[in-house]
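Schema walkthrough. Field components (list of strings):
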Amino acid sequence: MSRERLYLFDTTLRDGAQTNGVDFTLADKLAIARMLDELGIDYIEAGYPGANPIDTGFFAEKRPLQARVTAFGMTRRPGRSTSNDPGLAALLAAEADAICFVAKSWDYHVRVALETTNEENLASIRDSVRAAKATGREVLLDCEHFFDGYKANPAYALACAKAAYDEGARWVVLCDTNGGTLPHEVQKIVGEVCAQIPGDHVGIHAHNDTEQAVANSFAAVRAGARQIQGTLNGLGERCGNANLVSIIPTLKLKADYAEKFDIGVSSEALGHLARVSHALDDILNRAADRHAPYVGESAFATKAGIHASAIMKEPKTYEHVAPEAIGNKRKLLVSDQSGRSNLLAELDRIGFVIDKDDPRLSRLLDAVKEREAMGYAYESADASFELLARRLLGRVPRYFEVEKFDVNVEQRLNARGERVTVSQAVVKVKVGEELLISAAEGNGPVNALDLALRKDLGKYQSYITGLELTDYRVRILNAGTEAVTRVLIESADESGDHWTTVGVSANIIDASFQALMDSIVYKLVKSGAPA
Ligand SMILES: [Zn+2]
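Field assembly_structure (string):
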């Protein structure tokens, strides 16, 4: 059976960049564009050339991407010609494969916001599409407020869309700009539009103000639209845009869509989706949504003991799709609520066979509960959990001991009279009978401590050369009456393995030290370093 092609249009770098608190640098934008490209997104809308230096910079040169790089901007201003509109000129000068215009399609907005006539707005759409087509670009028109406009004046909203389509726009995109339209309304209206404009030229741009942007996107597809616009992790103004990270797996894994449509995302690329989603959060320096559908850490996590024992027998009993398909993992939570079966499963995963009546199991469960009450987070710190379990089972050698460390932060004037902050650390380590002292300067106290700690571990040094810290996250928690700091450190090594360790203390340096130590010891255990 031949499947229809459905196109994905990402606007993380344009609509997503309008989110409160989001400030992409040019380097961020380029990194995100590469991720989207590897994922197999058809169109990457990278910004608004001329609107700010970063967007202008993005479009200043041709970017080596498979996806169609799309520049966003307004149709020509009312009362001006296309050749006498600096905004339009900047847009047409952009190094882009496609140009996406935004235009009003609600007569009320034409009158009140644009202060022009309905006919002049239509002329502006036609002229702008024609001017962009003349430069050889693919052209899209975002019909702003289309659904509200259609409800108020269907003939005029449709006339705006038709004006662009008749002029040769590849796509006419129906935007639910205020995000208040409901799925059944979207389905009805898109169906009516597709009776006038072929659905393979119609796109949907939904916002999430009623938590239904994803549902609205699917409603539009069911009514005939063949392009979906959205963003990674649903980033976007107010409540966000349609979340492509939820839409893509549904299109790929749910038979109703997978049997009918092809998209540019391969099954292999789908297997990296969780990583892509988390990478965006890393760039935004925010915690990933644990409960995000498909990709969240909790999306395939089971806490209750009874479910955990069923899931070990047959995963399908509690999973709607296989977590590996999107690069996620099944997780049986080791936490304060965990039952013995979760703990046994987790121990099994890391290679411990232990009888379920072994008294050490209760001791481990108690230790986990006690430490989690202090602020440790073993759900997030797999390596620290493994070390805790190994220590309780008596299987972690005492490779080395840190006798003392000293971290010093100094702010002073340098030789050029500039104010600089210098961090230094000195660590005294005992490896067997050997006493080693290392000092290092770092980019901040934790970095200095890390560098000093890993500078010289004597006979163990060769085991940790490939160790690298890849992420460092700090949370202030209120555990009991006092605020404590939880540090999570993500590490990686030469084999590409990643692991996370945790430290908790009232003192951020101390919490970091614990997490650093766990990471080094974990690496030594993992590498099979002799005791
Ligand atoms: Zn939008």
